[in-house]
Amino acid sequence: QVQLVESGGDSVQVGGSLTLSCVAIGDSHSLNCMGWFRQAPGKERDGVAVISGGGWTTYYADSVKDRFTISRNNAKSTLYLQLNSLRPEDTGVYYCAADQQICADILKGREVSDARTGFRYWGQGTQVTVSS
Questions:
Q1: How far apart are CA 117 and CA 113, in angstroms?
Q2: For residue 34, which of 6, 66, 1, 72 has the smallest C-alpha distance?
Q3: Cα 15 to Cα 83, 88, 92, 130, distances in angstroms
Q4: Alpha-carbon distance 117 to 81, whole Å?
Q5: Residue 107: what pLDDT?
Q6: Residues 43, 94, 121: CA angle, nearest 5 degrees
Q7: CA dihedral 40, 124, 56, 105 (to 10 degrees)
Q8: For position 88, what pLDDT does the model report?
Q9: 3-state SS, residue 95
C-alpha cells in the first residue's frame, strides 16, 4: 500500500509562484507513473501534469504548458509541481496521484486534462488560491 501526502498549497497573487510537493509513504519503490490533478469548486477533477517513472517523460494539460513543471526525486519518494505565472483559473484543490503502471497504459491516448481515471493511489489534496 502507498499513502500520498501533498503540501505546499497557499494563497498567492496573480503572477505568483508556488511549489507543491507530494511524498509517497509505504511501498513507494513500486510506483511508476505519477501525476497532479486539480479540482475547482463545482467542477470535475482535471489532469494537470503527468510524469513517467524515471522522470524522463512528462505530459501537460494545454492550460498549464510553459507555466507549470512536474518533476520527481525517486530517492526521496517525492513528486513536485512548480507553478509559475499563476492565474485565478488555477485556483483549486491540487491532488497527487500514483500507480504502478506506465503512463502510456494509464493515459491510453487521452489528453492529460481528461485522464481522471486510471491512477490507483490518491492524496488528500492541497488548496491553491490565486487572487487578483
A1: 11
A2: 72
A3: 10, 9, 16, 9
A4: 20
A5: 94
A6: 100
A7: -80
A8: 96
A9: strand
